[in-house]
Amino acid sequence: MSPLHDPFFTPVSGMELPRFAGVPTFMRLPHVPDGDPREAEVEIGLVGLPWDGGTSNRPGARHGPRALRDASTMIRAEHPVSGMRPFEARRCADLGDVGPNPVDMADTLARFEGCFKRLKARGTRPLMAGGDHLCTLPVLRGLAQEAPLGLIHFDSHTDLFPAYFGGTALTHGNPFRAAVEEGLLDPKRMIQIGIRGTLYDRADREFAAAHGIRVIPIEELFARGIADVMAEAREVAGDGDTYVSYDIDFVDPAFAPGTGTPEVGGPNAFQALEVVRGLQGVKIAGADLVEVSPPFDPQGNTAWLAVSIMFELLCVMA
Length: 318
Ligand code: MN
Ligand code: MN
Hints:
Blueprint: E1 44-49, H1 64-72, H2 86-89, E2 92-97, H3 105-121, E3 125-130, H4 136-143, E4 149-154, H5 175-181, E5 185-195, H6 203-211, E6 214-217, H7 218-224, H8 226-237, E7 242-247, H9 269-277, E8 284-290, H10 301-317
Parallel strand pairs: 1-2, 1-3, 3-8, 4-5, 4-7, 5-6, 7-8
Helix pairs in contact: 1-10, 3-4, 4-5, 7-8, 9-10
The structure holds manganese (II) ion (2 copies).
One manganese (II) ion is lined by residues 155-157, 247, 249, 261.
């Protein structure tokens, strides 16, 4: 870790301006919008995708980035366990939101993909805040230009389902099926952790089995323990570039109720952080935290847990 001494990339300290004051950016970082003269210097860019056009049931994740920015002003500079100070290890910035077209899915996905292509071209690794889980697909399209990526995926759903209502449309239930079919992900380097909940059928599990995707149901995670499962996750991902996708519904709805498709019987808030600490050593090409739906989060505790997970992700990326 080489400490930065550039005040531009240093978050606003709560010792200088109280955390409840000022214009909220992710973790109080500088806002570096597209076209900013310093954009090429950003090593890790926090980006909001305020869109939930892939949601099949309870909407609202389009309001996620704004709620997450507000909650994230409570994040401080240093990780309590690893001692990592990510804002000194890497030049981090809030790159703002990519504007969706709220009435046109194809246009929205193209706008998102364009942003992540540009980030990839200039060597900025993204930490994306959703938005629903379909927002991950254009990120992968932007990042996996040269070679397919590995994937470590925390979720209560595999998101490998066939299209909804018998059609061909993309939804937040099939981004990873599409990503495998498009060659964006290497299924042999994919692991999905925390899977649970009632099913329509087993089509997603059959797709996983046919492609060699490792699925860890919640029962296996709890029986083996987090350390053992995360050791396997590191092995599955290997030495290659790997994307980390974190659906907040991985966490038990007692701790994260503000999401579109909650499933009971999940990890608690501490375990939600602990799994990310197990990513140390993975070559992370980008990461996201998706599916926070502020209209279902009146207490704000889902958003607070979500930004705490984002800080954990940032620390393992840094
Ligand atoms: Mn889910
Ligand atoms: Mn998901």
